[in-house]
């Protein structure tokens, strides 16, 4: 399928061994700059899958990271890593000069509105990582940008300064929230998003963060659309657990309603991670992954043929 007019096609992914050229911190997160010309073709919303340990590693599965920024001119791609378990702790411990085995760029990208449109970026925790870069692309395309950057607490806010530098300079609003009130305004990203959506103009929302947050963003946007009458197109970068990252293992399947009204299990790694939020069956998405709705095509309970 060819890309919509004015949208760059995604680059073909490759498996590369690439050097880490910068390893430093971005707030509470590890920040790695990786040099490779193929990875550098990534577009906002896409992700990479990074191998963990050396060839003797018992950690067989790659770990997925959304692309913080990619620069084709510099030949670099950047990721932001929260040291969560053994795999991410190993990746966060890489230093300049180390090499990483990376597959990418993978998955779908955010599709920005045409010039003159409006996008609101909503990031939770490290989900904000791609948004300074996404905002840069939007501003360059003549799109008006506002943003909400949120987290559980101040330590988990990601790249507030980066988002402010781009969105603020272009005259947009950046609202910062934390659940515990330790930075910005106390409350959820959706509280701030609801205010930004009071304006009755057609809006694209691009969101990245935990699945529960993405479901809440979808509900907030639907309520705003109902109230103001202005359409809100919500694109979410989903974070379903991924094992292969390339469409083979079916670990990442998610129930999504098609244009024909039927629900099918799609692969978040290849059909996503950026998906139309209105099509996701959020009723079947939980903290430990998605379940298969009884009415899904091919469901064991006897879904539609
Ligand atoms: C599309 C996408 C983008 C992501 N972007 C980022 C990012 O920018 N920064 C960041 O820090 N993290 C990101 N993550 C989450 C990151 O991939 C997980 O935290 C990581 O896989 C957990 O590995 P671990 O070894 O630290 O944890 P462990 O709990 O030790 O992992 C054990 C096993 O469970 C799997 N697993 C556990 N949690 C997840 C998960 N959420 N997703 C996939 N597999 C999981 C691991 O692959 C591993 O096989 C992203 C995940 C996805 C799917
Ligand atoms: S992670 Fe294997 S199919 Fe998506």
Describe the structure.
With 305 residues, this protein is an alpha/beta fold. 17% of the residues lie in helices and 31% in strands. It is built from 5 helices and 18 strands. The protein has helices at 86-92, 131-140, 160-169, 189-196, 211-228, and strands at 14-26, 29-35, 47-50, 63-66, 69-71, 76-81, 99-106, 118-124, 144-151, 174-178, 185-186, 203-208, 232-237, 253-257, 263-267, 274-276, 285-286, 289-290. It has a 7-stranded antiparallel beta sheet. The chain has a 7-stranded mixed beta sheet with strand order 11-10-9-8-12-13-16, sandwiched between helices. A two-stranded antiparallel ribbon has the order 14-15. Helix 2 (131-140) runs parallel beside helix 3. The radius of gyration is 19 Å and the shape is globular. The two termini are 25 Å apart. It binds flavin-adenine dinucleotide and FE2/S2 (inorganic) cluster. Residues 47, 61, 63-66, 79-82, 84-88, 126, 129, 239, 241-242, 273 line the site of flavin-adenine dinucleotide.
